Amino acid sequence: MSEPLRIALAQVNLLVGDVQGNAERVIETARRAKGELRADLVLFPELTLSGYPPEDLLFHRGFRRKTEEGLARLRRELADAAAIVGFPEYTGAGIYNSAALIAGGELIAIHRKAELPNYKVFDEKRYFEPGAQPTVADCRGFRVGLLVCEDIWQPEAAQLSRSAGAELLIINNASPYEIHKQREREDIARRRARDVGLPIAYVNLLGGQDELVFDGNSFVMDAEGEVVMRAPPFEEGTYVASFMRDARGRVVPERGDVAPELTDQASVYGALTLGVRDYVRKHGFPGVVMGLSGGVDSALTLAIAVDALGKDSVQAVMMPSRYTSAMSLEDAQEQARMLGVKCSVLSIEGMFESTLAALKGEFAGRPQDATEENVQSRCRMLLLMGISNKTGRMLLTTGNKSEMAVGYATLYGDMAGGFAPIKDCSKLLVYRLASYRNSLGRVIPQRVIERAPSAELRPGQKDSDSLPPYEVLDPILEAFIEEDLSVDEIEARGFDRATVAKVLDLVKRNEYKRRQAPPGVRVSRRAFGRDWRYPITSGYRR
Fold first, then answer.
1. Which residue of the set 89, 139, 149, 456 is catalytic?
2. Strand-by-strand arrangement of the 342-345 sheet
3. Which one of the listed residues 66, 77, 89, 113 is annotated catalytic?
4. CA-CA distance, 188 to 203, in Å (whole number)?
5. Parallel/antiparallel/unpaired status of strands 237-245 and 5-11
6. Are the CB atoms for 328 and 299 separated by under 8 Å?
7. From the CB of residue 184, how many other CB atoms can be counted at a distance below 10 Å?
8. 139 an active-site residue?
9. Which of 34, 46, 77, 427 is catalytic?
10. How much is the average pLDDT of 507-530?
11. Closest-CA residue to 211 (of 447, 527, 502)
């Protein structure tokens, strides 16, 4: 029997645009995989050299030069190792999203991605030309078919590889996280494996990139569609899989460690934590500052920040006013104590009074309304931004998706900041995540989770004064935002038509706010970011 082919799946965290740094990671990882892990081939994620997604960096001549220099360096320095590396390939016919098999200092084969996604968060047709030919190469006597990410989502590329003699499909990916995405990936891979009767080695990128999080979850699947190895999600590492020939000469993977699937709450929380950690560290911020209100949104955000960065890198600020309850102040200080976080208490009362006095003449003859509430939010933001500017710590905002959808947030107030961790989490999901985090160890006072939500900007205020109950609001928003359903279709699910129409009108009227919101981690099927492109000015009615 021939010796097994040992393939290392390099689930690495890269930095978009840092071609030199990414090349160094490839060299270091490949050498370690060959030396310590005895790997014959190291498989890296999609667009390894550039990072994913490189976006309009691809159009810069200097970026092209750095990419070509990086690939040349890999050829020189990987003379004793074999690796499949993703890179943008510049040609006279355009740019290709390519994967190169490098061995012995040579480019053995190059595969050009054939299926270019242009939906949801993907814009690849803006940048790349599609490849047309299958790529099959020999690696220690094993015929491996090279595919790139979306190639596996359509049947043609795998079938062409099989027809060209592939015995094993190798796929490098930059597949971003969303809830239930791993299940979908494995379902697609299972379909392809069974279609062509070949095993699959699938490596995925790890790390946060702006609003996207890449969760890893790399895996190996046999020809029957069974997962025989799965790397842990949200963890960087290099994982080796062995492939043998059976008695009939077919390539089969050996069984390895299969990391368990996470629950929905655990996977979302892992994505949020990784997204915050990488956004802060890749930008070089020394830490974060955030407002703590005693409510569940800021409580969850604080827990995420501490889990992502450590307590010494997080500063909380409680900013009470005349409307802040003693309960909120107590709960905020209690949570800060539980997490070991510094929590300053800075009253906005003086600022609020001074601002109202300055505007007294302008407001004369007009009744009190949401304006005075928004002034409080903007006073708080002045304090937070002052601390952020002075300390260099990035300001985290604490708004959730339900609020972003209907505009229940103050522009240049609580919406202001550098990153919005729970921007894509509905209010009901926020509650579930808070309870999940407490199940691991209590870090949020239970009273925060159980009490009725309130912005505390006027006496006795509750969210339900302005909005439908979240048990009604969130399903309506999900149906509209993630499923594109109409008023009629949502009403058919049992919701009051007037309520549905009101909610959808609020969504439409607050597009201008969302366009000015900071980025935040995408966890749902559709977030207010790269995959939400509605006009601000529009006469359309649903």
1. 149
2. 342-345, 314-318, 288-291, 394-396
3. 113
4. 14
5. antiparallel
6. no
7. 12
8. no
9. 46
10. 96
11. 527
Q: What stretch(es) of the chain map to CATH 3.40.50.620?
A: 266-467+510-514
Q: Would residue 46 show up in a list of annotated catalytic residues for this protein?
A: yes
User: Could you read off the pLDDT of 337-366 as tens digits, one per residue?
Assistant: 999 999 999 999 999 999 999 999 999 999
Per-residue burial over 360-391, b if 16 or more Cβ lie within 10 Å, else e, is: eeeeeeeeeeeeebbbbbbbbbebbbebbeee
- Sign of the alpha-carbon dihedral angle for 393, 399, 404, 406: negative
Instruction: Judge if pTM exceeds 0.90.
Output: yes
Specify whether the CB–CB gap between 97 and 112 falls below 8 A. yes
Specify whether the CB–CB gap between 426 and 309 falls below 8 A: no
pLDDT digits (tens, 9 = 90+) for 363-385: 999 999 999 999 999 999 999 99
Q: What is the architecture of the domain spanning 266-467+510-514?
A: 3-Layer(aba) Sandwich (3.40)
pLDDT band at 452 (very low <50, low <70, confident <90, very high): confident
- Alpha-carbon span 501 to 522, nearest angstrom: 26
Q: Compute the residue count for the chain.
A: 542
Residue 35: both structure tokens together: 């030396």
CB atoms within 10 A of CB 278: 21
CATH 3.60.110.10 boundaries in the chain: 5-261
Q: Considering only the top CATH level, what class is 5-261? A: alpha beta
In this predicted structure, the answer to whether residue 98 has a pLDDT above a threshold of 80 is yes
Active site residue 113: yes
Sign of CA dihedral 125, 131, 134, 137: negative
According to the model, what pLDDT value does residue 358 have? Answer: 96
Query: In angstroms, rounded to a whole number, what is the distance separating the alpha carbons of residues 368 and 181?
Result: 47
* pLDDT, position 340: 97
Give the pLDDT score at 386.
Answer: 97
